[in-house]
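Lab meeting tomorrow. Look over both lines:
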Amino acid sequence: MNTAQTRRGLLDTVTMVQAGSVQPQDLINESHARAAALEPNLQAFSYLPAQPPIATAGYGPLAGIAVAAKDLVDTADMPTAYGSPIYADHQPSDDAWIVARLKDLSATILGKTVTTEFAWRHPGPTRNPWNRNHTPGGSSSGSAASMASGSVQLALGTQTLGSILRPAAFCGIVGLKPSFGTISLKGVRALSQSLDHLGVFARRVDDVAYALSLLMGGPGAARHAPFQVASDGLTPFPAPRIAWLKPAASPALEESQSALLAGAAKRFTEAGAIVESFVLPTEFDALPEIAATLYGAEGAANFSDLVARFPDKTSDRLKALVESGLAISATDYIAARSAQLALRAAFTDAIAGFDAVLTTAATGEAPEGLSQTGDPGLCVPWTTLGVPAIALPAGIGPRGLPLGIQLIAPFGENLKLLRVAKWCEAALAFKASI
């Protein structure tokens, strides 16, 4: 198999299809062959058809692009189990909005990827493609692994706490969580309606930018400013002013991750950026507690009936979420929602004068073992605020696994974040290769 071809980025693939140098069906066949060959060891897919899917008709802007869809996203022509045995034979009657949109753009859904149970904390069998003894992160486990392994050019993920950014960091790829509400969640199984985001994995910043420019909007989506991406990608932001936010003591960073973050700040400074140490005002310390109230109450509302009806088919972790959520009062929930929105607005003022915030998405390399998917704590503040965030691969740790950085911008500033990220990507000059 031509490894260089299978690892080609999304925008490069689009350019080749549009030039007529490769046929969409040949690309889909190639992606399917790679996914099938890797699946026995990687276990990234909850459903991969035995034969390559027929490439979606037409030569739209995503013709020939193989997409891995997280098994939280409804597909009318593929099973959707939401990571739960309760829905093992579930076949949705309709595509989720995002799937219909991808097909309208001539993309092809290659298969469904493993998620933790209902995107909560009970992990599936997926392994990290860098080292099969380590987790790929979660809950978008299969999407991150399939993207990192070169099986697809684009993968869909969802994030309620850290389920896009952390797997991207663990797997050495780019993960984008746009501003809350940027992409419609119609047809995506809810965990927490106040926190759930739909985002994407790809190989480079230009790839996720191109995808987002085509996928934003849909029923129930917020009115974030649209943008276009040319065939040669985004124009990088001029040397940015970056707020270097050093994470709090908990969760503690591994020494290699701290060194990588400091090294990235130094590299950005040497490339012409202004990088200044930064501390958020103390009122933002409440964000993890706010998140816990929101996902607890909303998780209980979404899953208490299933836990009661199927006690033998729901995990202890889901039962614990429901139990804690049912103890949350309506007044505490309303107060948390109000505080979330107030802090979202305050964040823009808090980082005034900076173009982006620099921090990390994970404490270090992917943990060994598959019994858990890593600590999401370093992503929770930004998910709670609903601000756009992106993970970039930036180095390799002492165990030979990827390390990444995270960049954040004010609410609604999807394009600005992507342009800053492209500048940072060039300054890092790091290429992850399994």
